[in-house]
Specification:
The chain has about 250 residues and is of the alpha/beta class. The chain has 3 domains: about 70 residues, Winged helix-like DNA-binding domain superfamily/Winged helix DNA-binding domain (Arc Repressor Mutant, subunit A), CATH 1.10.10; about 55 residues, Periplasmic binding protein-like II (D-Maltodextrin-Binding Protein, domain 2, 3-Layer(aba) Sandwich), CATH 3.40.190.10; about 70 residues, no CATH class. It has a 3-stranded parallel sheet. The longest helix is centred in the middle third of the chain and has 28 residues.
Length: about 250
Amino acid sequence: MATVADPLDDLIRRVKLRDLRLLLRVVEAGNMARAAKTLAVSRPVISRTISDLERTLGVRLFDRSPQKLDPTVFGRALLRRSAGVFDELRQGMREIEYLANPDAGELRIGASEYMAAGLIPAVIDRLSRQHPGLRFSLELSDPFDRLRERKVEFVIARLLSPDVDADMDAEVLFHEQVFIAAGPRSKWVGRRKIRPAELMDEPWMLAPPEIVEGSPVVEAFRALGLPVPQATVLGLSLHCATGCSQPAVS
């Protein structure tokens, strides 16, 4: 049986990992001079490497100016995939490290502030006792963006909608109850029975994901025949929620 060669195989063989690494460093540095200093090579080496890559691929990767190198659409595509290549290599090294020593390695976790205040510390505490050599990195800022950028291995957060983006997989770990909470100085504290309708005109604190269509909060108020309360404070800060006296969903 004849084997049909993929024309891309020749290109792949001619593109070296060190050239892609150099490309990433050039973009991070912003120009050749700073990149040369970072990589401890001469500026002509960088210029020649970029030119050789452009010649190999048959496209222009950068728009050059004396002050800056701007990636073209081709350059951005190559850089995006190159970042994925190096991330996969790092993940491979971490996996080898873990297989060689299951008590070592690094786990990068993306999380919402709510999960970081409750579930995740308990999980880290248990894993640290079982595997003292493990290191943990916690990312709270835009965790789902960090997942797409391969900056974290997974995200633990509230799933406020049954739908997830096509490029992600979601698994339900547990179902939590939703409560309305108020601070200790609130006039509602001490009341044994409160109808949600009585709270509609109170100053509320809500999180932006809680007021989108399909969220449990929206569905709960809808089931009661009530609109979602108007939020006086709209934000995701757990510290702010626990410090406010007005009703808050938790």
